Amino acid sequence: YDYLILWNLRQLASYYMISLNYQGAESVLEETLEISKNQNSVMEVADTENYLAYLYFAQQEYDRAEELFTDVIRLAGDEPDEDFKTIIEYSHYYLALLYKDTYKYDLSIKEAEIALDVHDSLSENGERAQDMFVCNVYEALGNSYDYLGRIDEAEGMLVKGLEIVRKFAESNPEAHELH
Length: 179
Fold this sequence. Notes:
Helix content is 78%, strand content 0%. The protein contains eight helices and no strands.
């Protein structure tokens, strides 16, 4: 099996997730994980574990999701390459959401900040891309600060997120028609 087959299996699993066929998604992802392990491809294992962790997150199986997201970060090591950074960026982001959903707001803030740091390291010239991913991270930060009673910090994060949405809307006027 090569990269494209593994990628297509993950895409099939994504389709099943969107269709709320979680059992089908889990079955495909378990097969994909087994193939990745047999190929000794750490990056493919990490990418597949990320998908599987998201599946568990979507089903509110937080312990299983946390274990896999944490394993993805461990697999990346101390100095991940650019491709691995993209994978762990999402692991940190979803851990931030997971911790917010499980009332662990300090951990949520920590993971969201790490996700932003990784995102920054992937952006050209150190400038953060103004995309919806970053907007969502700021929303998670704002919500966690709010729950901790840190209102000024919450407002600051939510305003940053709103600025990104406004810039995105200005540069993509057709985007609102898609929703």
